[in-house]
């Protein structure tokens, strides 16, 4: 049941928050270099480092990490449903195991992705 609820929540989060972030990025890109620099300062990196920008920068990263988790949660849950559609895994024990794997794998994949991104940002 938890996997089903998380699948729906992550799908809604990706659709609503992801669409808003995409539209913000697209609008900033179309508005010119200053607007795009402000977008990047809010969600990724602020070279000036003012207090307000640091807070929005942290909030932007929280949103991006949340979207990353939602992506992996929805992906793994969708793959689980694809396997269930083949007729496999309807035994209670197997179904519970796959549900647990989905719930554990999404945060692990999110952490691995963000560790990689942070490592690349520090090196480059």
Topology:
Layout: H1 2-31, H2 33-43, H3 51-85, H4 92-123
Fold and architecture overview:
This protein has 124 residues and is mostly helical. The protein has a single domain, classed as 3 helical TM bundles of succinate and fumarate reductases (Up-down Bundle). The protein has four helices and no strands. The protein is elongated. The chain starts with a helix and ends with a helix.
Number of strands: 0
CATH superfamily: Fumarate reductase/succinate dehydrogenase, transmembrane subunit
Q: How many separate domains?
A: 1
Which spans have pLDDT < 50 for at least 5 consecutive residues? Answer: none
Computed structural class:
mainly alpha
Using the 3D structure, state the CATH architecture.
Up-down Bundle
The fraction of residues in strands falls at under 5%
The CATH class label is: Mainly Alpha
- Compressed to H and E, one letter per element, the order equals HHHH
Rg over CA atoms: 18 Å
What is the number of helical segments per DSSP (H or I, 4+ residues)?
4
CATH topology: 3 helical TM bundles of succinate and fumarate reductases
- The residue fraction in helices comes out at over 70%
Shape: elongated
Largest sheet, strands/sense/barrel: none
Euclidean distance between termini CA atoms: 43 Å
Mean pLDDT: 90
Cofactor: heme
Subcellular location: Membrane
Function: Membrane-anchoring subunit of succinate dehydrogenase (SDH).
Keywords: Heme, Iron, Membrane, Metal-binding, Oxidoreductase, Transmembrane, Transmembrane helix
């Amino acid at each position: 049941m938890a996997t089903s609820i998380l699948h729906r929540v992550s799908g809604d989060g990706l659709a609503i928050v992801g669409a808003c972030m995409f539209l913000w990025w697209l609008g900033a890109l179309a508005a010119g270099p200053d607007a795009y620099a402000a977008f990047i300062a809010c969600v990724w990196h602020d070279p000036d480092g003012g207090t307000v920008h640091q807070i929005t920068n942290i909030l932007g990263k929280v949103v991006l990490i949340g979207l990353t988790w939602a992506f992996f949660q929805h992906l793994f849950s969708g793959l689980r449903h694809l396997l269930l559609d083949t007729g496999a895994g309807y035994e209670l024990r197997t179904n519970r195991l796959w549900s647990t794997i989905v719930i554990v794998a999404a945060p692990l994949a999110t952490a691995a992705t963000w560790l990689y991104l942070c490592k690349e940002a520090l090196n480059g």
